[in-house]
Amino acid sequence: MNRSVIILAVLLAAAMLGSYFSWTYEDAGKEEKGVVLLDIEPEDLQSLKYEEEDFKIEIVSKSDKLGDYYWAEAERKIKPPKKPNGEDAGEATTKKFAFKASQAAEDTFEDFAPFHAARQLENVSDDNLKEFGLDNPQGTLTLGLKAGPRAFDVGKEGYGHRQYYLRDQETKAIYLFNGQPIRSLRRGDNRLPERRLVEAEMRDVVSFTAKSGEVNATFEQKNASDRAKAYWVEPGQTEKNVSAKTWIEKLMRTRATEYAGDDVKQDLLEVAATIEVKTEKDATTIELLRGQKPDGQEAWYGRSAFTRGLVALPPAIMGALVPDVVTLVGLEPPPREPAKPPASAPASAPAKPDPALLNKLKEKATQKAKEPAEPAKPADPHAGHDH
User: Fold this and answer.
1) Residue 180 C-beta-side C-alpha neighbours within 13 Å
2) How far, in whole angstroms, is CA 236 from its chain's centroid?
3) CA torsion sign, 113 to 119 to 123 to 129?
C-alpha cells in the first residue's frame, strides 16, 4: 500500500476519534456554554430528590433564626450477603438517615441552578433508548421548583467519560449531563452529611470556655492568624497553656460518624461537658454527652446549634478527650476504682488424711529403721591401674 495512503488513513482515524470525544464529552469549563434545560436561580430550587431501586434521598432548603441550611432525609435498603450457593440469605433491611447537609449539598444545588447540560441528543428513537440506559432508567431525579416539580429519568454513564444521560419526563428530550452532582446524590447518605461540630475554623476562634459540672475555665487565643505562632493563655496571663491548645485542636478536628437515629433515647443521655467556642462574630455552644448502646458499650454524642441535631462521635477519641476537661478547669480527676477480681468459688477446707494410709506409712518407716545397714564394699585393688 502507498505510504501516503497509510498516513492519510491514520490522520483520518485520529480526526474521527477526536470528533467522537468532542461530541460525547464536555469539560466543566465548556458546560456553561452548553444547553440550558432550566434557566432558574438558586432561590427557585427548593429541593432535590433522587430515587433508585435500593436508595432514595431528598434534600430540602430550609431557614431558621441561625440562617439558611439544607436538611436531608434518606433511606437505603441493605441486602445481606448471598449464601455460598447463590441463594438470598434473607430479607433486606431498610436504614433511615436524617441529617444536616454539608457544603457539598449546597454545591450540588448550584449545579442545578441554572440547569445546564453538555448537549442535547437529537433524533433518538425509542428503539435506541437502551443504548443510553433509558429503556429501564436506573433512577429518577426530581427538582422541586417554586413553579412545581420537574422530573428526569437517569440513564447510564456515557462511554469514555463520566457524564450521565438524562431524559426530561415532560418533553422527552435527552441530554448529556455532568455526572458529579448525580454521583453525590446517589451516595448522599455518606458524602453529604455535615460532620463538623462548629462552622468556625481554628484561625477564627477568639476564645473557648470549657465547663465541667459547675466549674469552668476560659482560654484565649493569641496570634490566631499565624498558625505556626498561635498559642493559648488564660485571661490576663502571658504564660502559654499547651494543654489548652492541644485540647481545643483535638475537639475542632473531631468529626461526627453519623447523625443519631430515633433509637437513641436522648432523655437518658448525660451531659459530660459543655464547650463554648467564640469568634469575632458569634459563639457556638457544644454539648458533649455520654450514653450507652443497647449492648451496654459506652457511646458518645455531640450537639450544637450548628449541627441542628444530635450526632454520634468516635468513642475512642471522646473517651480520652472528655476526661481532660476536668484537668482544664482545674479539678482533680476522680479516682478510678480498682478493678474487682472476678468472683471465684469459696476455698474448700483441706482434705483430712486417711487414718489407714497414715498407719501403713508409719509401719514402713519403722520397719526401714530396724533393717541393718549394708556393709561397705572393699575397694578394688586394681582400680586406677593399667593392665
Assistant:
1) 13
2) 40
3) negative
